[in-house]
Amino acid sequence: MFGEYGYMEEGKLGKPYNFKLLKRLLPYSAPYKKTIIAALFLTILITLFDLAVPYLSKIAIDRYILSSWYRVNIKVLTDVETNLLLKRYGHLLDKSRDGSSSFVSNQALKKIDPGDIHAYKSHGVIEPERFYRTGPDVPDMNGLEKGQRTICEMADGSILVPYQMIEGLPDEKIMQIRAGDIRGVALIGAVFFIFLILSFGLNYAEFYLLEFTGQHIMQDIRLRLFRRMQSRATSFFVQNPIGRLVTRVTNDIENLNEMFKSVVVTLFKDFFLVTGILAVLLCLNWRLALLSFVLLPFIFGLTFLFSTMAREAFRELRATVARINAFLQERLTGMRVIQLFVRERFQMDTFGRINRENYLAGMKQIRVFAVFMPVMELFSSIAVALLIWYGGGKVIEEQLTLGSLVAFISYIQMFFKPIRDISEKYNIMQSAMASTERIFEFMDHGEEIPEPEHSPAPSGIKGHLVFEKVSFSYEKGRPVLKDISFEIKPGETVGIVGATGSGKTTLMNLIERSYDPDMGTVFLDGIDLRKWSKSRLHKNMGLCMQDVFIFAGNLAENISLGREEIDVKAVELAAGEVNALPFIRRLPEGFNHEIGEGGSTLSAGERQLLSFARALALNPQLLILDEATSSVDPATESLIQDAILRMADKRTTLIVAHRLSTVRNADRILVMHHGRLVEQGRHEELMSLGGIYYKLNKLTLM
Questions:
Q1: Are 626 and 508 in contact (CB under 8 A)?
Q2: What is the rounded average pLDDT of the residues 358-372?
Q3: Element (H, E) at 478
Q4: What is the pLDDT of residues 427-448, one digit of tens each?
Q5: Can you name the CATH fold of 19-46+203-444?
Q6: Helix (H, G, I), strand (E, B), or coil: what is residue 273?
Q7: What pLDDT was estimated at residue 554?
Q8: How far is CA 230 from CA 127, 225, 438, 559, 575, in A?
Q9: Quick one: which of 639, 562, 558, 556 has its CA closest to 598?
Q10: Which residue in 103, 284, 316, 681 could disulfide with 69, CB within 3.0 to 4.6 Å?
Q11: Domain boundaries in the chain?
Q12: Class of domain 465-701
């Protein structure tokens, strides 16, 4: 279970990521469903704007910049061929005012079958000369007539002018003739500018909505994760380093936030964009589109291969990051020990090995990306080259407009953009998925003390405690307590003594219900502890341990611990009852004096007195002192002893002690030895037996 460096190894994440993880996130996103739907709707609009931009370029080129018309000479056809042409393509033809000529636009040519176009051109039906169509309001058009059949007036009053005639005119005249095209290009430019403004606004709104939703969802998940951690059994925190737990609540949650912002909506947008591009390409020219699709199997195959390789690389990277966090947390906490025993070099070597593993995992990820990104760029270039080779020939043959080819190239480049986006954000996605997996592993971790479905609600606790044939082991096959039975009556003060490892602290853990017994039952006021709700049980139980933890904050906050039912008066009363008032009054700000993390500015005795006051603040009926005087000086011990005597008159008190002087005046003393209760009685009775308690006293006096 535990690795080379003394902390629990990360689980091997062998299963591929799938949509089950995303399903687990749905309950957290449900309260923000409307916001998410609004963001997705904005994403669709943004995607539509993106799809419209290349098509605007096509319209500008084909309809205004390179607009051209060709004369259709029907006279060279037989009557049958003429009827067939008119039947199939008559709707694409525009007739002159006098009905003597017909013309077809370059945009309409792409709607005619390429085989028919080739036949019509080879037989002179579609003449090679290009015409430009201008509006009827252009002045001095009559002066342009040179030669025969140069100018043709159409039914709507517009005029077709040969390109050769326009090329020789002055710029001012060309501007007059092409005024309609200039207005059209300006209109396209205005629409494009409007799209940019709208796209900016929509992108801002989308980003804000996604951030708003993501932050709220992360807030909910972080609260739930912390709540789940607080409900875990003590063994959970023994097996999981603090650094890893902190990583889950901070880094992993933030990675999950990136999942909402950069992955979920990106996948939706990219899917919609790719689908839209494929549809537009097929509508523009299905033959050219199919040629472009030749590369799709290679692209998807490469993407699948990359995702598999990158997934494993990121799993290794995340595992090494977790090991670094756990190592640093443990070593920084124990830095004083490291320095006192001059183990800096050893710890540096150990950290160097872990850091090297992290470096190798990071380089593995970089190598995967270093291959994938250039290959995707190569495929993109190949696709553009194919379009230029095949599509350029079709433009020369006038089977495809230049605007369509330009739009095709833009769409193909846009087609590769979502794939590049996914690859660029794959580190975010993999990191987020790995974090999601780890978060829900912690969520699903079953190592907790279960709450009863129906707990008793007595009006008050008397403190009547009974152990009935209790056995317990931390590890299977290695029992710590063996068939323990005893009774502690309400108001009784009982000492528990024994050599190190005899099971004293384990007894306290069972009373506190940090663990449940493997066999037997622990009763409080005649009710099995497993039927008590943990909150009701702990509110009526005060605990003082050998290792006192002091939180950053002031003295009053460390006594009350934020419990609303403890007011200032109760804090002062508890401090006075444990003889802590003298040292508190010596502090500059008294109860408002700020304490650093761990209570580093206080002595061990002062921290222990604060622990006593914290335990008594709610006036519990069951008080547990677990080695509470082992690390204090004689003067402080005298204060604590005096406090214990006064407190014991009001409540049931259990005192675990190595210093037998602490329990000498107890009503009864329980003697533990190798996990069994071997002796019990008052001090004088046990001394007269000459057993284990007698020997412990002799050792204490030596």
A1: yes
A2: 85
A3: strand 478-488
A4: 667 667 777 777 777 777 656 6
A5: ABC transporter transmembrane region fold (1.20.1560)
A6: helix
A7: 83
A8: 85, 9, 17, 20, 27
A9: 558
A10: 103
A11: 19-46+203-444, 63-184, 465-701
A12: alpha beta
